[in-house]
């Protein structure tokens, strides 16, 4: 049997859910398990419910599943919201001091959830309390593991003669993690090491946390001697990293030479910029230290304007944003388009429209990324499906921008942004840097920035380059970049810029355009982060000897119509999977291939897809029991 | 080799209206660049949208004609990436104080070493004369259907309050004085703001060249007209913050604000405020990135033979499990 176990921790925002999950992930990854973790949270600073699901396995995993095997709850809301996710045979560690808590006493439970919960408990004939809901779990075969978190602190306070410990409820997260590891029977040393490394700058805090962890770990190991889970022992794969969503693109930018990043704060994109700034000084081989200049701007309009200004000096420049910010950038995107300025906009999508679900997932902005800005101009829209991929794709996006002299919109999303996963250590050796026709010296004079060339791309000067003076304008221009309203010049320039679509499709390697994961009569088309759960769902089907094909379309604009057509030529049923309401890839598919997809599997609750729900929908489709639009709903 | 004034001129046909105040500003910028002998490839003129937006096409340096209201954003990005460039941003009063007002305030807070010139004529000329943010309440220029219903922005006051460290005003028909102000602005260590009064002969029939010349104000006894424009430096006004003391700074700020409110029969030009004690943005960056000026983004080497040379192994080590 494989080990495949999902651990869930949650509590009020600000109570250390995330750091608890980070410790757990680090410990498990350190032992050698593959980790896939995902955080869900409200648009709130303190108090609202947030949770973190960490799936560990002894084989490669790419997604979360519906089932939870071990859950830790140190507040009542966690119990109320998530009890039903714990499967038969699973267990719940909860703070026994919460048992008497009634639904009405938990003020952060919104009325819609509350009424569903009460209806459920009424149907089960249970009281509206923690006790009531835990009884339903027990009846389903879930093991209850009550622990008084306060008592652990009190006892430890007594043992160590440190009365201050008694009231330190902010340690509940560490207690929860340590109890979990004790129950799982995983070695305690990585736990203590991990705490030490997390609090390496605060040795006193580290010490107390270690004491608490050790105590809780031993407590659980002693009290719950019956082993509920026995994860397989694993051996650590060499060169494995534990990485967070934003780190793929951020480290990618450092490696590929992005040296200027203006940005405006927005969830879930700002983490990337903050990380870049935290690591702003760069080691450069055989040269003096480099740096990434990160500037927090007054708005996203300024961010894109500054980025373009930076790119005009020859600097690889970028910004990072999400839907609302990208909306503000639309006008300047067109300016970059008409002036053929290579820039990369990293867009971590979230649920729209407007503010939408500001901290939740969505793949809502595909068609907007393709169409943003007035007028017709070339651009590239490119989507990564996972963190590891996003590292390498970042370098590619910068090359595309430089080679084709177009703005590139690199699409990612909140699912990727708030995931923590194990993957192979990024390999900078696999990254190449191609600056296209960027000039270091002017050979032909007078220099003409928009000179007509056989491939439609002109040699590019930069601000500061001797004899390389040029003009840019948002107006239509002549070869020098001066305003021109001449109708024939207009044709020449429009043709020059828009001929680039063919060039892009011809020059970007096919394997960078579309990735095929195998073909079958039924084939999924998808893009972006839906990839992970799709791969895992296909794997689940494979175990039942059912084959489903899958192509991940990475180059979404210009659309690789002919290549997609050739890949799908023998496919009978096409299934579009994505996290939005209208099936935007399906729209694009129809627009370019002239035919409808057969089924949609869509999710727009703001929660990312699990492989379980994709598997379930695929089964329905394969059994001819599905609706044209399968709508997924899993997740609190 | 010294460059001549003509070296800074392009052959692009200038389509501004005859008598437009913008001509004086373009001439003054070209004269300033020539006098400072700034190599053409070391200067970049950024411009906004509107009549003044065309400025960058008439000057033979790098010329970046940006978007309406956004000129400061493009210019700052270039200035941060390549601090060796002399960067002058130019735009109209609607561009900078209407649609772009947010960027104006934010730019002041940053104090990046560059110059921003606003062509101030009280109207949106290219869209046929609507009221701009500097037109006064109740005034009705030629093409307005009814008198202006908004109070005016005070560009000098706003610049001082936003943190610009060099704040001055010029008049487009006093080109030599304006040229001197532009040179002073470019030489200033930090962000310079120049408010240039510039009559729009087509749409502003209130603040005309004659009005600035004071042809309507006659000294009865001497029978002479009096220009409204006068120079602060002729009055012994000292705009410079000399030392870092609250009283000194407050005095210089408040005198600039008070002077900025002067309008009507007497309109001050010249330098209102100059403070080189406040650190320019580059120095603030150097607190974090010590070699920023020596190795700014635009100068950094990022690859060798098509391979990256940035070493992220320490970061990856920290992620390794």
Low-confidence region ranges of chain B: none
Question: Could you say how many structural domains of chain A there are in total?
Answer: 4
Described by the principal axes of the CA atoms, the overall outline of chain A is: globular
| The first-level CATH class name of chain B | Alpha Beta
How many strands of chain B?
Answer: 15
Poorly predicted parts of chain A: none
CATH topology of chain B: Rossmann fold
CATH superfamily of chain B: Thiamin diphosphate (ThDP)-binding fold, Pyr/PP domains
Profile the largest sheet of chain A: 8 strands, mixed
Which strands sit side by side, in order, in the main sheet of chain B? 2-1-3-4-8-7-12-11
Strand order of the largest sheet of chain A: 6-5-4-1-3-2-16-7
Q: What is the number of independent domains of chain B?
A: 1
Q: Give the termini distance of chain A in whole angstroms.
A: 29 Å
Count of alpha/pi helices of chain B: 11
Q: Whole-number average pLDDT of chain A?
A: 96
Give the biggest sheet of chain B.
8 strands, mixed
Can you give the helix content of chain A as a percent range?
25-40%
Notes on the protein architecture:
The complex is a heterodimer of chains A (636) and B (321). Chain A has 23 helices and 24 strands. With 636 residues, chain A is of the alpha/beta class. In chain A, the strands form four sheets. An eight-stranded mixed β-sheet of chain A has the order 6-5-4-1-3-2-16-7, sandwiched between helices. A seven-stranded mixed β-sheet of chain A has the order 11-8-12-13-15-14-21. Chain A has a six-stranded mixed β-sheet with strand order 18-20-19-22-23-24, with helices on both faces. The longest helix of chain A has 21 residues, at 203-223. By secondary structure, chain B is α/β, with parallel strands linked by helices. Chain B has one domain (5-288): Thiamin diphosphate (ThDP)-binding fold, Pyr/PP domains (Rossmann fold, 3-Layer(aba) Sandwich). Chain B is built from eleven helices and 15 strands. Chain B is globular, with a radius of gyration of 21 Å. At the A-B interface, helix 1, strand 7, helix 9, strand 8 and strand 9 of A face strand 2, helix 3, helix 5, strand 13 and strand 14 of B. Strand 9 of chain A pairs antiparallel with strand 15 (310-311) of chain B, so a sheet runs across the interface.
């Amino acid at each position: 049997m494989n080990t495949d176990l999902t651990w869930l921790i949650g509590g009020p925002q600000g109570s250390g859910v995330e750091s608890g999950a980070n410790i757990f992930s680090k410990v498990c990854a350190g032992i050698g398990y593959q980790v896939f973790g995902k955080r869900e949270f409200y648009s709130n600073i303190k108090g609202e419910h947030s949770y973190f699901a960490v799936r560990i396995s002894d084989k490669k995993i790419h997604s979360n599943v519906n089932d939870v095997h071990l859950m830790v709850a140190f507040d009542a809301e966690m119990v109320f919201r998530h009890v039903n996710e714990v499967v038969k045979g699973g267990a719940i560690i909860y703070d026994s001091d919460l048992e008497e808590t009634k639904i009405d006493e938990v003020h952060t439970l919104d009325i819609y959830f509350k009424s569903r919960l009460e209806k459920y408990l009424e149907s089960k004939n249970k009281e509206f309390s923690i006790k009531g809901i835990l009884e339903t779990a027990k009846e389903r075969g879930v093991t209850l593991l009550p622990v008084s978190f306060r008592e652990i602190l009190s006892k430890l306070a007594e043992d160590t003669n440190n009365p201050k410990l008694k009231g330190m409820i902010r340690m509940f997260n560490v207690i929860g993690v340590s109890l979990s590891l004790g129950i799982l029977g995983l070695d305690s040393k990585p736990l203590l090491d991990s705490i030490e490394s997390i609090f390496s700058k605060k040795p006193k805090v580290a010490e107390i946390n270690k004491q608490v962890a050790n105590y809780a770990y031993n407590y659980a190991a002693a009290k719950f001697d019956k082993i509920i889970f026995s994860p397989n022992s694993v051996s650590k794969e060499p060169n494995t990293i534990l990485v967070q969503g934003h780190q793929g693109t951020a480290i990618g930018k450092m490696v590929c030479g992005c040296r200027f990043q203006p940005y405006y704060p927005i969830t879930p994109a700002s983490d990337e910029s903050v990380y870049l700034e935290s690591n702003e000084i760069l080691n450069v081989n055989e040269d003096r230290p480099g740096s990434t200049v990160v500037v927090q701007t007054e708005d996203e309009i300024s961010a894109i304007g500054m980025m373009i200004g930076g790119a005009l000096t020859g600097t690889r420049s970028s910004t990072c944003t999400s839907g609302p910010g990208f909306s503000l950038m639309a006008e300047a995107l067109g300016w970059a388009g008409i002036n053929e300025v290579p820039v990369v906009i990293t867009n971590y999508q979230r649920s729209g429209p407007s503010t939408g679900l500001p901290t939740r997932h969505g793949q809502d902005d595909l068609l907007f990324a393709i169409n943003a800005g007035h007028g017709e101009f070339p651009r590239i829209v490119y989507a990564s499906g996972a963190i590891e991929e996003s590292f390498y794709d970042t370098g590619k996006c910068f090359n595309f921008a430089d080679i084709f002299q177009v703005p590139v919109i690199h699409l990612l999303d909140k699912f990727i942004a708030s995931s923590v996963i194990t993957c192979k250590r990024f390999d900078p050796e696999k990254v190449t840097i191609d600056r296209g026709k960027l000039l270091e010296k002017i050979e032909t004079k007078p220099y003409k920035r928009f000179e007509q060339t056989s491939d439609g791309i002109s040699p590019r000067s930069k601000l500061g380059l001797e004899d390389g003076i040029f003009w840019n304008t948002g107006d239509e221009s002549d070869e020098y970049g001066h305003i021109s309203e001449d109708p024939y010049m207009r044709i020449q320039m429009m043709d020059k810029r828009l001929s680039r679509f063919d060039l892009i499709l011809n020059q970007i390697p096919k394997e960078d355009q579309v990735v095929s994961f195998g073909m079958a009569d039924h084939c999924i088309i998808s893009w972006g982060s839906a990839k992970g759960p799709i791969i895992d769902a296909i794997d689940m089907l494979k175990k039942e000897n059912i084959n489903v094909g899958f192509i991940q379309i990475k180059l979404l604009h210009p659309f690789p119509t002919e290549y997609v057509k050739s890949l799908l030529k023998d496919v009978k049923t096409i299934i579009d999977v994505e996290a939005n309401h209208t099936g935007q890839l399906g729209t694009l598919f129809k627009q370019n291939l002239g035919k409808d997809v057969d089924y949609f599997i869509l999710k727009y609750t703001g929660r990312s897809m699990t492989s379980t729900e994709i598997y379930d929908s695929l089964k329905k489709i394969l059994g001819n029991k599905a609706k044209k639009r399968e709508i997924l709903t899993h997740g609190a | 080799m010294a460059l001549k004034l003509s070296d800074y001129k392009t052959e692009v046909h200038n389509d501004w209206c005859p008598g437009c105040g913008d001509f004086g500003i373009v001439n003054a910028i070209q004269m300033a660049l020539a006098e400072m002998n700034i190599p053409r490839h070391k200067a970049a003129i950024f411009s906004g949208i509107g009549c003044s937006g065309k400025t960058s096409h008439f000057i033979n340096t790098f010329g970046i004609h940006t978007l309406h209201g956004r000129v400061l954003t493009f210019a700052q990005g270039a200035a941060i990436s390549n601090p060796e460039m002399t960067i002058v941003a130019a735009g109209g009063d609607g561009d900078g104080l209407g649609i772009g007002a947010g960027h104006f305030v934010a730019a002041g807070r940053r104090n990046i070493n560059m110059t921003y010139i606003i062509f101030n004529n009280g109207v949106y000329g290219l869209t046929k004369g609507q009221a701009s943010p500097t037109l006064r309440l109740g005034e009705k220029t030629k093409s307005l259907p009814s008198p202006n219903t908004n109070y005016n922005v005070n560009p000098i006051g706003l610049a001082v309050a936003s943190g610009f460290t060099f704040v001055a005003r010029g008049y487009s028909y006093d080109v030599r004085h304006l040229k001197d102000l532009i040179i002073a602005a470019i030489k200033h260590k930090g962000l310079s703001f120049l408010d240039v009064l510039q009559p729009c002969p087509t749409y502003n029939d209130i603040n005309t060249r004659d009005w600035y010349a004071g042809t309507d104000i006659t000294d009865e006894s001497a029978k002479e007209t009096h220009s409204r424009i006068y120079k602060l430096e002729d009055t012994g006004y000292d705009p410079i913050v000399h030392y870092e003391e609250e009283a000194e700074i407050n005095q210089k700020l408040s005198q600039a604000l008070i002077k900025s409110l002067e309008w009507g029969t007497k309109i001050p030009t010249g330098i209102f405020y100059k403070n080189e004690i406040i650190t320019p943005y580059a120095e603030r960056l150097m607190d974090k990135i010590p070699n920023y000026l020596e190795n700014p983004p635009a100068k950094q080497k990022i690859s060798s033979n098509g391979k990256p040379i940035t070493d992220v192994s320490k970061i990856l080590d920290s992620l390794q499990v």
